[in-house]
Every structure is written in structure tokens, then in C-alpha cells.
Amino acid sequence: MAEAPITRSRGARRLALATAVVFSVSLVFPITAALARDVSPFPPWWGPADVGVAFVLAIMAVAVIAVGGRRGTQDAEQATYRTYRVLIHGVLGLVIVIFLAGNRITWSYGLLGLAWRAWLLLYGLPAWFTLLQAPPGPLPGSPTT
Fold first, then answer.
1. 69 near 126, Cβ under 8 Å?
2. Which terminus of the chain faces fewer neighbouring Cβ atoms within 10 Å, N or C?
């Protein structure tokens, strides 16, 4: 039996939105750890929860990239470009944070987690916008009937 194509009405938009929610939740872990001077008071489930949410995020990001494909719409391409233009200000913002609060942030706890999440965001953004703005009907790369 052939698998039905994934359409906006069947979940592509929901996948994009759910991935954005999981991404936002996953940011809590490295930011909180970086702002803490000592992570020993954290509950024992904190580390496994961080890894678990990060794993779920990675799987969802791969799904977004696989379903969204490389053949996005021009609207998705323009939205990605505009978002990139806004997000690059985050680099400047990070430099300002380092200057103003650099010694109050435990970079070894949070930098790696923030860095790979930032890379994942930037890499998957075109596919994410493709899913978010997908017209009804089969998406590029979805199975056909």
C-alpha cells in the first residue's frame, strides 16, 4: 500500500511548528546552565532531560529537512533571507554580552549547546520555511501515491 503524500493539511505545518517549540524548549537547558555558577544543585534529571530534548530536536530537524527538501518556494527563500539578516545581529549581540557579562556567564556549560543549536537553526531554516508556507498538496520530496 502506497503512503499518502505529506500535505500541509496532513502535518507539514504542524511538524514545522512542533520543531520550533522543541527548539525553544531545548534552548532553556544551555542558557540556564551557562547562567548558573554551579550546576551541582541542579536536579539529577536535568542532564538526561537536556540530552533527551536535544535528541528529539535533532530527529525533528532531520525530518523537517527531509520533508522540506531543497526545492523550496520563492516565498520561503525570501523569508529565510530576511530571517538570516535578523539572526546575524545575534553574533553582534553575543559580542556585547561577552563584554558586559562575560565573567558572570559560565561559557563552558552553555556555549557548545548554543553553538550546535544555532547551526541547526541556520541549516534547517530554508526547509522549515518551506514547510511552514507550503501550499496544499504534495510537498517536494514527499512520497507519492
1. no
2. N
Spatial distance between the Cα atoms of 50 and 47, rounded to a whole number of angstroms: 5
57 Cβ neighbours under 8 A, 6+ residues apart? 19, 22, 23, 26, 117, 120
Q: What is the pTM of this model?
A: 0.77
Amino acid identity at 125: L
Residue 77 is classified by DSSP as: H
Query: Do the beta carbons of residue 2 and residue 145 sit within 8 Å?
Result: yes
What's the CA gap between 39 and 44, in Å, rounded? 10
Alpha helix (H) residue ranges in 41-105:
46-68, 74-87, 89-101
| Helix %, strand %, coil % of the chain (to 5) | 75, 0, 25
pLDDT digits (tens, 9 = 90+) for 31-50: 998 888 888 899 999 999 99
